[in-house]
Write a structure and sequence with these properties.
Helix content is 36%, strand content 37%. By secondary structure, it is α+β, with helices and mostly antiparallel strands. The protein is globular, with a radius of gyration of 22 Å.
């Protein structure tokens, strides 16, 4: 009987320790570091255009069919393949990224720390054939997921305030 109680007690202690380690992500999560990493990912999703670094852009966007992006003109981008169709515009020599600024960026995290969502106001200043082609005072929201220890954007929504 003592052997059974000892084995049962050891099993319960081991089970409790494993459960505790699996459910204590809040203690191990450095929110300041994660916030910096998320902010860098958000900036890279816009800042890549200055040097037309598609590798940088594609490294921060979910490369799957579930990626979604909604534009102010009601265009909905469904999936990474649809997203890449904009290359013809971005890589055209007539398109020139001038600058961008993100104001009032707010970032929140899920309880487990593997999902983040953000809101900010975007001024994305660009030219097409020397003429302004900018998105100014654009409301920008998005969702990121931590995959393989890297933050990836899985959804974005852009909108203009009605006047």
């Amino acid at each position: 009987m003592k052997k059974l109680n000892l084995k049962s007690s050891l099993f319960l202690i081991c089970f409790f320790l494993v459960w505790l380690s699996c459910n204590s992500t809040d203690d191990a999560l450095d929110l300041n570091l994660e916030r910096q990493l998320v902010e860098t990912t958000i900036n890279n999703s816009i800042g890549w255009a200055k040097t037309k670094d598609l590798h940088l852009l594609y490294s921060v966007i979910a490369n799957d069919t579930n990626y979604m992006e909604i534009h102010p003109n009601d265009r909905v981008v469904n999936g990474f393949k649809d997203f890449t169709k904009a290359e013809a515009f971005w890589m055209n020599p007539d398109f020139k990224a001038i600058s961008y600024e993100i104001k009032d960026l707010k970032i929140n995290f899920s309880q487990r720390g593997d999902v983040a969502w953000f809101f900010g106001m975007l001024d994305d200043i660009n030219e097409w054939k020397g003429q302004p082609a900018s998105w100014e005072k654009t409301r920008w929201t998005g969702v990121l997921e931590k995959r393989n220890n890297k933050w990836i954007i899985v959804q974005m929504h852009f909108s203009f305030a009605s006047k």
